[in-house]
Design a protein that fits this description.
Elements lengths: L2 E9 L6 E4 L6 E6 H6 L7 E5 L6 E9 L7 E17 L9 E7 L4 E5 L9 E6 L11 E3 L2 E3 L4 E4 L11 E8 L13 E6 L5 E5 L9 E6 L20 E7 L6 E4 L23 E7 L33 E5 L20 E8 L8
């Protein structure tokens, strides 16, 4: 016997997983796509159910289809979704994904990797590449998947691999950009994909970031990447910069900083021959004064908050438990399927639990 915990609704972003924070144990989770119930588009999932005896990322789903014959009628097929389904998420116990063999990648920016078989990765997944035999300088990088294709065998990241040699290797999932981050505290340091020579300066990151306007950051840029102007001043002290704009969208993953970099040395990923080297990273320092950036279009914050430097985000625990609604093409297809598809839909959900006690009779 189970009891309803709570219910709710949401409107998804196209092809983007959706996270629902829930602290209670969930024994059963029901999901209904209201937008597709009315149109009954052939093949699109209308209902999904997950039970706690099931593995993560799957679901029992209903999807309409056309039945050929004298009536040529619509019918609902109930089946099990193989990926892009419903998962229980525990921020304190995030599990590494299975190893996926990488057959090759196309050097350039962005970088398109090809797996030896369908990889099951989704846009927004954070992945780590290792064992890159011909490109060891890329080993250990964590990146956000910005696109998938090739029938589920290719995935794209914002990595600039122009100076690298294509290679076999291994990739595995370490998280998802739409889930609470593994470190639990906001924000994390991020490896840099590229930096512009502009006023103001733009920084693109390999992993989707959650920085906000007013955050203060510094940089650690190894010499082989150039742009040493970001590291230290002439007195040897680290330089700090204030974030004045952000774009958290997967595939953009950028921040804009209040600094004129037009005369700086260019930033570029080095040649493979320069390996070994450490990663170029942007490191959070605190939350700063945003009252001096009106020339960049930043609205001053009310006093006294707007004119003090604090470390507030160091105490903001972002950890959460809950349900992750997966994404794919919105159908139950074996290699490309997933609950949330390429359209913006309205969903209703209900969570149940069986963890309760009853009096003895």
């Amino acid at each position: 016997m189970s009891s309803q915990i709570t219910t709710g609704s949401f409107v998804n972003v196209a092809s983007t997983p959706y996270f629902i924070p829930l602290q209670q144990h969930v024994s059963r989770f029901d999901l209904m796509n209201l937008s597709k119930l009315s149109s009954y588009t052939s093949g699109r999932i209308t209902n999904a159910t997950w039970y706690d005896y099931m593995s993560n990322d799957i679901a029992i789903v209903d999807a309409p289809t056309t039945v050929t014959g004298p009536l040529n009628a619509s019918a609902v097929i109930r089946t099990q979704l193989a990926q892009g389904g419903i998962s229980i998420f525990n921020a304190a116990n995030q599990v590494k994904g299975a190893n996926i063999a990488v057959a090759s990648f196309v050097p350039g920016q962005p970088t398109v990797f090809t797996a030896s078989a369908p990889h099951g990765l989704r846009v927004g997944d954070n992945v780590r590449i290792v064992s890159m035999t011909s490109a060891p300088e890329l080993g250990g990088l964590v990146m956000t998947v910005t696109a998938v294709g090739g029938g589920g065998t290719t995935f794209t990241t914002l990595l600039d691999s122009t100076n690298s040699l294509t290679s076999v290797g291994v990739v595995y999932k370490v998280g998802n950009a739409f889930l609470p981050q593994p470190s639990l505290y906001y924000p994390e340091w991020r490896a840099i994909a590229s930096i512009t020579l502009a006023n103001p300066m733009g920084v693109t990151l390999l992993v989707r970031q959650v920085y906000q306007i007013g955050d203060v950051v510094r940089f650690n840029i190894p010499t082989v990447f150039g742009m040493q102007e970001l590291n230290t001043t002439q007195n040897g002290l680290p330089v700090e910069f204030t974030v004045i704009a952000v774009n958290n969208a997967v595939g953009t993953q950028s921040v804009t900083l209040a600094v004129d970099s037009t005369a700086f040395t260019a930033f570029a990923w080095p040649l493979a021959a320069e390996y070994p080297f450490s990663l170029p990273v942007m490191i959070p320092q605190g939350e700063g004064n945003i009252n001096n950036f009106q020339s960049f279009g930043v609205v001053p914050a009310p006093l006294p908050y707007g004119n003090q430097n604090i470390l507030g985000f160091a105490t903001q625990n972002q950890g959460a438990n809950g349900i992750l609604i997966g994404a794919g093409d919105g159908t139950a297809a074996s290699s490309t399927g997933g609950l949330i598809g390429a359209t913006t839909d309205t969903w209703v959900w209900t969570a149940f639990t069986s963890l309760q006690q009853f009096p003895q009779i």
